Structure formats: C-alpha cells, structure tokens
Amino acid sequence: MHETQTTARWQRAQACIGRGVDTIDTPSLVIDLDAMERNLARMAAFAHEHGVRLRPHAKMHKSAELAQLQMHHGAVGVCVQKTDEALALAHAGVRDIYISNEVIAPAKLLRLAQAVRDLPTKFSIAVDSALGVARLAQALQTAGVGAPRSVDVLVEIDVGQGRCGVAPGDPAVALVQAIATHPVLRFAGLQAYHGGAQHRRTAAERTQAMDAATRAVQATVDALQAAGFAVPLVTGAGTGTFSLEASSGVWGELQAGSYLFMDADYASNETTPLAPVFEHALFVKSQVMSLNAAHAVCDAGHKSHAIDSGMPSVWFPSGLSYASGGDEHGVLRADADQPLPALGEVVWLVPGHCDPTVNLHDFMVGVRGGLAAGLVERVIRVDTRGCLG
Amino acid sequence: MHETQTTARWQRAQACIGRGVDTIDTPSLVIDLDAMERNLARMAAFAHEHGVRLRPHAKMHKSAELAQLQMHHGAVGVCVQKTDEALALAHAGVRDIYISNEVIAPAKLLRLAQAVRDLPTKFSIAVDSALGVARLAQALQTAGVGAPRSVDVLVEIDVGQGRCGVAPGDPAVALVQAIATHPVLRFAGLQAYHGGAQHRRTAAERTQAMDAATRAVQATVDALQAAGFAVPLVTGAGTGTFSLEASSGVWGELQAGSYLFMDADYASNETTPLAPVFEHALFVKSQVMSLNAAHAVCDAGHKSHAIDSGMPSVWFPSGLSYASGGDEHGVLRADADQPLPALGEVVWLVPGHCDPTVNLHDFMVGVRGGLAAGLVERVIRVDTRGCLG
User: Above 80 in pLDDT, residue A3?
Assistant: First the structure.
C-alpha cells in the first residue's frame, strides 16, 4: 500500500516530463538543470586545473544518476557515509564507492563484504579503531573474500573537526600497522576532513583552520613514512574549503558535494580566493495555501526542507522572508512596502542545507530553461533516501 | 533499484520478528509496544470519561496500522495535514480521515474529490478562505460527486496560533455562508487548534492561552448561532493542552497525537492538572561507531531524528549527553565521573519531536517486553512518510 502511493507520486511527477514548471506539484524538490550543469563543469575544471582527483560526496544528492553524471565528468567515484548508501548506489550501477566513515557493526560489515564479493563495484572504507580494522577483516574472511582481492582502507585522522578519527601522528601509524597484518586489506591513505571549517563565514577563518589541518596531515604523513609506510592518498575537503586543500600540496582528492546544488548556508560564506563560484540549483517549489492581512502561509515546512542550517531563503517572489510554521507550513512575511503573495501563488525556496533536505524526498524534478518558464526534463530518484544503516 | 534496497531493509527488519532487540540494525526507530499501549489506553479512558471524541493526529505516527489501532480503541477517525497523507491512509484501509489543514491547489482537490467518489473512506477537510471553498466545490463537481453525497467542511479559526485560520467571529460567519451555497458541502463545525500553546512549559501559561482560545471559539459559536447556523462540532487540541479543551465546554473532539509516543519536548512540559501522564514509547536505537578519550560518536544524527525541538535525550546508558554531530553522527559526552560507552555499545535516544522523526524512517520496529531484553513483535510501516503534496 505504501509502495502504491509512493509509486503514484513518482508517476505523477513523471507525467510532468515535457510540460511546464506549473505542472509540478507542491511542495516538490526541483533542480535547475542548467545551473547544476554549470556547477558540475566549474568543479570538474577546477579539479583538472589543480591536478587533484574529485570524489564528490553522494550523501549530498543521494542519487545514482547524479553520481554517474559526476563520474562522466571526471570524478573518480563518489563518497557515502553509510553501508546502506553504498549498497543502494552499487546496486544502481555506481562502480567506485568510498565509505568515508567508520562502520563497527559486524552485520553491516558482512553486508559490505558480501557486496565486495558479489558486485562489480570497487568499495573502500575509512577506519579509526583497531576493532574496526579487525572486524572488517573478519567480515571479508566470513564472506570468502581473499587474495588476490583486497579492500582499500583509509585511516581517518581528526584534523580539527573533533568528531571521528584518531589523533594525527603516532596513533595513525599504529592503525596502519594493524591494517598491514591483514592481507585482505590495503592501506590506501588518509581520510582528513574538517567539517567545522566548511561553515566558518570568513575566508580568513577557513584558511586558518585549514593551515592547522594541513600541518596535522603533514605530521601524520611524515610519521608514517618514518615508520616505513607510503601514503598513497590524502582525501577530504568540502564545498567551503576545497580550494585550500587543492593548493595545500598534501591533499590529492576532494570530496566536496554541495557545490552541485549550493545551499543557502554555503552561499552565506565569504568567497574563498581562487575558488569558483557556484549557483543555487536546488529549490523547493511551494505555494500559498492560507493568507491573512499579516502574512501568507506556504505549504512547505520542515518536512519539505531541513532546518539544521537555518530556515530556507525565499528565492522568488522577492521581498519575502520565511519563518518556521512547523512540519507542514512556512510563514511568509513581506518586507516594508512589499506585497504578500496571493492565495495559490507559487513561492520558490532555497534550502538551508542540501543533504538532509534531499533525504526528505523520494525524487527531484529536473527543469530545463529556468524556474519561471522552463520545462520538466526528467525526474531523478533519491536512491539513498532513508539509508541509515 | 531504489525500491529493491528499501525492500531489502524492510525484509531485514521483518527477519528480526521473534528475535531479540540486539538483532535490530542501527540506527532504527523502535516502539516499546507495552508503553505505547498503556498510552493508548490512558487517552482512550480520558476521552471516554470526559465525553469527548478522540480523533488523533496521524501526522504523528504516519501509520495506517496505528490509526486503525486507535480507532479500535474508540477513536472516531484520524486527522492528517496533507492530501497525499489522506490518500495513503485511505488506500491502506483507514475509513474516516479529516484533513485538518487548508488545500488550495486544484490538482490536489481533484485527487481528493476522486477519492471521495471512489473509496469507502469518509473524508472531511478544513478551509479558511472563500477561494478554498469554491475550489473544493468545483473539484467535487468535476469528479462527479453530488447529492445525496456531501463532504464535511470545517472552518478554521485562529485561536492564538497565528498561522492559518480566519479571525474568530464574523469572518467565520462569512465563510460558513459561502459553504452553505454549495449543496455538496456540509458545514461540520470549527477547527480550533492552538499549536503554540502546546509547548509552553508551565501549566499556567497553557491554561491562560487556552482560556483566551476558549473565548474566541465561544464568540464564534455565538456569532454563527446569531446568523442562524448551528455548530455541530469544535475540534482541536494537542498533547500539551487536551485536558483543557476537554473541560472547556466548547470542544467536542480532541486531535492530540503525540501522547501515543511522547517525545522529549512534550515530556519537558509541566504536567497539566487532571491530565494523564504518558510514557516515552518511541526510541532511536543507535550504537557507538567511534570513540576517543573525550567523547563517543554514535551512528544516529539528524538523518535519524528531527532536531526542530532540540537534540534527542539519551535514555540509556545513563550519564550521557547528546550533541549534534551532523546528519549521520551524534557526539556523546559523559557527565562528571561517568564512563563513556564502549565502541559498538548500543545507545538508546528519545527524539525531541516525534512527527518529523517518524517521517525520516520507512518503518518502526515494535518491541514487546522492554528495550533491554524484549523481542521484536512486528514491523510497522510508515505509510505517509514523504507525503508532502
């Protein structure tokens, strides 16, 4: 029954293909495909010019179709955060997937090991504990994965985020030594991502954070080399700092994801020198469903968009601000001397944070030719929505 | 492909039935069925004792199975907020559904009208504009719904929430007059819900808000009666105030929903005199996937639970506090002299806000016999997850 109605919504969206933006139901997640493709090209060109690999984080768009589009434009693969995300994308045909996060549950590791054994996708994974290394090796053995096959393992170091990862330097060496005891594992490099630095508003703050992160990475590379281990790759970076990692001399791979859609939060950052500028490409189409003298109420609340990075901004019409009205409503107030929208009028929102916004939707509607007068070109499935495990 | 992996996750959960809580994957949404059933019985007894109808809001649990359980225990039906929620529950067999919210889009109203025509479910709906009334009547006419069939329409008045609804008094009379011009519509009463009052922490604040709301409702009833309209029903109330509506003498139907699960936010309210006390029945099962000297990191972030009403509280083990670690992580810190949990250890969270937390999951795992040593009894589908339209 559930699937029946999900399928009905999907088919209704499909029926809009070739028709105008006005046929899209509200609230819906809409991609401006022209803007997205310009963002895609800008980042691909940046990575090429700087001689770094691009492995965008698919936790942002959660879509096999967009992952493959990125790989078609030069990305070496994608990142995910969860085992179930990796499995969903692999089953949908993505052929190089890195779980840039720790997995400790034996049942999850076994699922991953079976996928390593059975699917044509290349999987790699981060670790930050000896237990994680031992359980991964055990799961691969249980699944019957052995030489000549091996799984690439990256050691996560904490470069300032203060979340996962071992401390830079000797703790990383100890973990690489643990990896080296398992022939089915291959030490493939360091995972070094500073999530907190992405959202510091001034370029100077971000530069300062990444300078410290660079020193932490370099000290770890030095310690590993002194212990006899080559470091094939350092991978990390997000949309707020990637130009700093690219020019650091230590990172060889960028994981930025949000550049493709650009959310309101990243757009609030002061631009980093030399970094390309990206456009908003992801919108919530909403409409006014209640109106009074003081405000209009639109049909998009925090069931339509995530609010962890603040409320959405109003893209069109201009002169409106959005305040929370709960799960299903947004309260729109007009700036001084500006009119309120009419009952039934369409209101376009820019989500504060792309990743968890996409997770609220089963699909995204791709529009060609602009939000005002464009046509629906395709409907893009959110393949890893709800992939928590 | 998407459905394949969603089905795989559903089947993995199903395979836990009859097995221990330890077999449930993390992060998962888990219902303590014993606690939920005690909550169910307490509210059913309360409504019965006070001679008011109970029409719980299914926007909370989003489940046809739980809606039918509530109706089996005396609820007259359920409320929803969106057309697509109504359609999903109706297709899953729920036979009395009230959309306690405005719908203005002709396409949505036509879907509703077709369901009125084709399904055995009784639908009713709120309005707060003449345009909404006219479009509803038009949609019913387009779908071929006519006498002797009619749709119950409730006029929403703003009793202090400051969101949707016409002002109390004469504006409501004008709207009822508009309804009366359409034989296919029947004026069924007033929708009067004060959402903001639900979360005021002291009983005195909530009582003050509901006293004002009661006066607004009474003034509207008086104005309607003076204009020759009987008011068959006043419906509203939430888990924070329902005992006040029940004893007001004007409300005849309670829409409280969260009582079934009780979230951390509602549990922070000072208890209202004479109101039954409800237990936490909804939890996120999580586990530690990274650990260092300062903190543990669990695998449940704001993709597992909503954060609009604050972070989840840690139910077990005791002595821990939860801080945001982003979409996929929670940072757990220990109180003074308390230990951190071990790597792989299970951590149980109580979500800040039930409704949008449930919306993040495809299913809830029902456990009998307690979280510590219970068995999985059944897996409950979230039928209206993602029903935005």
Answer: no
Rounded distance between C-alpha atoms, residue B145 and residue B116, angstroms: 8
User: Are the CB atoms for B139 and B171 separated by under 8 Å?
Assistant: no
**Average pLDDT over all residues of chain A:** 96
| List of chain A residues whose C-beta atoms are within 8 Å of the C-beta of residue B87 | 5, 8
> Which CATH code, of 3.20.20.10, 3.40.50.300, 3.60.15.10, 3.40.50.10490, is assigned to B34-263?
3.20.20.10
B197-232 residue pLDDT tens: 998 999 999 999 999 999 999 999 999 999 999 999
Which tens digits make up the pLDDT trace of A71-98?
999 999 999 999 999 999 999 999 999 9
Q: Determine whether domain A33-261 maps to CATH 3.30.420.40.
A: no
Interchain proximity B329–A163, CB inside 8 Å: yes
Interface test with A, best of B327, B332, B357 (most A CBs within 10 A): B327
Q: Has domain B2-31+278-381 been given CATH number 2.60.200.20?
A: no
Please enumerate in sequence order all residues whose Cβ is within 8 A of that of A207, keeping only pairs 6 or more positions apart, or say none.
A244, A272
Q: Which helix (H) or strand (E) holds A322?
A: strand A320-324
- What does the block give as tokens for B236? 């509203």
pLDDT for the residue B3: 65
Q: Does residue A99 sit in helix, strand or coil?
A: strand
What pTM did the predictor assign? 0.97
